[in-house]
Amino acid sequence: MSRKDAPPPFLAGVLLDQPDLLVVDSDDADEVKDKVGQSFKPHQFELLRSPEDLHSRLHQFALGKLSLHRLKYGGEVSVDPDKLEDFFLVQMPLAGSAEISCDSDTILTSAQTGVIISPTQRLRMRYHPDCDQLMLRIDRAELEQLCSRYLGHPLKQPLTFSNAFDWRGLPAWHYALEYIIRIQKEAPESLHERLILQQLEELLIATLLSQQPHNYSDQLAQDGRALAPRHVKRVEEYIDAHAHETLTPSQLAEIAGVSLRTLYSGFHEFRQTGPMEYLRSVRLQRVRENLLAPDNTLSVTEAAMKWGFSHMGRFSQAYQQLYGEKPSETLRKAQA
């Protein structure tokens, strides 16, 4: 390995010197597949060379709705999880290489180039025997909710990052990652403090949103320069509090204290959507929250009706467009 490709000193032995973080250390393919599947998701796993070549290890620690992993298969393997669905995955090789196919895009990862995989992308991965990497798993709902909060409105489409990730060339990401790793190793008790944990989660997510291109990058940059007028914020706040009620454009204009034309132009200029589209996005988000709730007893139809959706076909289409899965799939996974 060249000096250029060598990992930074703080990453060279990260997680390896903490036996309590070891999840699996095995040359049994079935055991490796099972343990890795529990940490991420069930998947198809194929050895591409002799089983004698396999010796895998996985270390990990949780950080709220995020988790950091270090994985080396030690053999030539193919991993096919289909779509990640519930989480984003950041892969940062410390050594070796892999071929990561996201939809029609194939990224050749190395010590200089990582990859970010979004939940709705069709994923296939081939790891070479020398591939040793850090992997950051980020809960989809957590990341998308934080992005929505920064934007000031619900997401209209699933959040999707550019795949190739120059993680070694982004100082802000590099230092944020180092900060988290040092806290975990040198002050692990602090991770049990809720306020500290939330700040650390947001640090990594905000850094990723600001440093890596995605389909909302332009809006985030624009919203940072121009604040929406008060009448737009007033309607957003009202919709957030009354999304379960019957609301019309004229009612919202009256609440805002402006004309209907001014209300629509304000939303389109500062939110790139209309007030009724904003209402629909909020309602879709509330339906998803209901379906994912641990104590949920509502069916898909009941949840949709609760939040004002009367046409199940259009509701299901809008939900799938926003979240990349049918509402019935969300409910099935929540009940699994």
From TrEMBL:
Q: Which residues cross the membrane?
A: none
Which keywords does this Swiss-Prot/TrEMBL entry list?
DNA-binding, Transcription, Transcription regulation
Question: Can you give the residue ranges of the HTH araC/xylS-type domain?
Answer: 233-333
**This protein's record includes keyword Acyltransferase:** no
Q: What is this protein called?
A: Transcriptional regulator, AraC family
Organism encoding this protein: Marinobacterium lacunae
One GO molecular function term of this record is: DNA-binding transcription factor activity
Q: Does the keyword Translocase apply?
A: no
